[in-house]
Write a structure and sequence with these properties.
Elements lengths: L22 H14 L3 H14 L13
Helix pairs in contact: 1-2
Protein name: CopG family transcriptional regulator
InterPro entries: CopG, Ribbon_hlx_hlx
Length: about 70
């Protein structure tokens, strides 16, 4: 199943961010992108959008930074 392409206007301002993934997470994201012929960045943006659209996102307790 292919993921739908984003339909954002080209002139829309974007914010850059940096995330750290484990080797396993990166491999899984990269494989998903490859299978669907999209960029890794697109997969990450789609995941963020889906989580934000979820009415009750289930967040796991993460490590707090000092």
């Amino acid at each position: 199943m292919s993921l739908p392409r984003p339909t954002e206007p080209a002139d829309k301002a974007a914010h850059r961010l940096s995330v750290s993934l484990s080797d396993d997470q990166y491999a899984r994201v990269a494989e998903l992108a490859r299978r669907n012929r999209v960029s890794i960045a697109w997969v990450v943006r789609e995941a963020v959008e889906r989580m934000l659209d979820d009415k009750q996102p289930q967040l796991r307790q993460g490590k707090r930074r000092p």
